[in-house]
Amino acid sequence: MIGYYAKAENLKFKRTFSRKMIFIVPLINICFAFLMNPGFFVAGTYNWWSVILMPVMIALLCALSHQKEMKASNYNGIFSSPVHLHMIWSAKISVIALYSLASQAVFLGFMVVMQFVIPQFSSIHLTVIAANLLLWLTTLWEIPICLWIARKFGFISAVLFNMLGSIVLGIMSASSPFWWLNPWSWPIRVMCPTIGIHPNGVPLENGDPLTSWAVVPPAVVLSVVLFAILARLTRRSFSPAVDRKSIKREAV
């Protein structure tokens, strides 16, 4: 059943900027890191990707999904149809999660190409592939909360919420012993052992405590659990009776 709703949601993104972002954002990230410091290309690229561009892209995907519904029928088309609203909400989350995964695959593909451009860039290895997969898993929780914020408070609120949360709160706590208490620090922290990069963008030395892989399992488990909780909680608000005033206010 969810597959049917997911296909319908995916069609809504046809010929939209959301699909183009899957290619544009990773390319911007790689070009920016290359221009900034090609000597630390891999470390710099993944640092920018985990701290800024990945959270911004997820927030934009969620905000654009909401914006498209607002422009189409102010959600009236969905609410007046004989459909399961919780399934539609789950489908929205699933499609954005797949787009996020696709962006990771595109990002990895660009990294493969770059090894032929930068002579000192070593070939793609398992840790780099693991980094992309871990970034996807540890940012899944951002999707339902950004969708909810976009619908409740609007386009800009969702983008600022996720971007500032990652840049400010994520970096502040990612290197501390209490990193696990802050969801935004999870993707940043797992880059320490996989890529060897400090949350502040400086390459880590061999033997640094931050290079321990012990943080990876709890980060993944925490993210998946929080994702499931937020997906369940936010879908309860997806109804014609909830947030009606905020939707009408944004439509004006």
UniProtKB/TrEMBL annotation:
The chain crosses the membrane at residues 21-40, 46-64, 96-118, 124-143, 155-181, 210-231. The keyword Transmembrane applies. Pfam families: ABC2_membrane_4. Coiled coil: none annotated. Keywords: Membrane, Transmembrane, Transmembrane helix. InterPro entries: Lanti_perm_SpaE/MutE/EpiE-like. This is Lantibiotic ABC transporter. It comes from Bacillus paralicheniformis. The lineage of its organism: Bacteria, Bacillati, Bacillota, Bacilli, Bacillales.
